[in-house]
Design a protein that fits this description.
Blueprint lengths: L9 H32 L22 H26 L4 H22 L13 H27 L5 H24 L6 H25 L5
Helix pairs in contact: 1-2, 1-6, 2-3, 3-4, 4-5, 4-6, 5-6
């Protein structure tokens, strides 16, 4: 086999996965955050406190493509890419592999939610087929955002105390925000805040994993 035909060595693949990890892990929340901010500013009377993020991209919304094609779809694709780089970067055990799988599921579900928008107001009554798919994707994404950090923490509990505690706290935060929002229901005057907290906990963890993973050798 010639030199040009040889597969990249582990150091080269590690550097590549670290760069992908860093870029996608930081870009995904920025892309989504900008789309939510811009979409909200173009939606008369929209409240980030009491309304779902998905309402910005719902059928009949003023500018649904801003959220769907400018936020949910690209941020979802970036999250999937982050999951693949994360798997390559932290290859060590079944639990960690499950964590990366849930990260990928969160990204894929978010992407699907952008392709299939909810009905006006994201109502759960007499839902269209698109709204049903959106709701299922949203549930899968929300569940995955809470589980992925917790599993990552479990996978690092023996050797990396900081990874364990940061992942545990952010995972619990995402889970609590999801549970409280589910308990209060869509009519809660703070459902928008709870949903954004849930997403923020997850993406804070993503950014931390991206920065730490890019800075340290794979063996760590």
């Amino acid at each position: 086999m010639s030199e040009d035909q040889r597969p990249p060595d582990d150091s080269e693949s590690t550097r590549l996965s670290s760069r992908v990890l860093l870029v996608t892990g930081i870009a995904a929340p920025i892309v989504l955050g900008l789309a939510v901010f811009l979409g909200g500013s173009m939606y008369p009377g929209y409240s980030h406190v009491s309304q779902f993020i998905s309402e910005l991209g719902a059928t009949g919304a003023p500018f649904p493509t801003v959220l769907n094609f400018g936020g949910l779809i690209p941020a979802g694709a970036l999250t999937v890419a982050f999951a693949l780089a994360m798997y390559w970067r932290y290859r060590s055990g079944t639990v960690l592999a499950l964590s990366t799988a849930f990260v990928a599921l969160a990204g894929l579900s978010q992407l699907i939610a952008g392709v299939f928008p909810c009905d006006p107001g994201c109502s759960f009554e007499a839902m269209s087929r698109s709204a049903q798919i959106h709701a299922l994707a949203g549930f899968a994404a929300s569940f995955s955002r809470a589980v992925a950090p917790l599993l990552f923490g479990v996978a690092n509990r023996a050797k990396h105390a900081r990874r364990f505690w940061s992942s545990l706290l952010l995972g619990v935060g995402a889970l609590v925000a999801l549970a409280v929002g589910s308990q209060q229901g869509a009519d809660s005057p703070f459902i928008g805040v709870l949903q954004r907290l849930h997403v923020a906990f997850f993406f804070t963890w993503v950014v931390i994993v991206a920065i730490v993973g890019a800075a340290q050798p794979r063996s760590q």
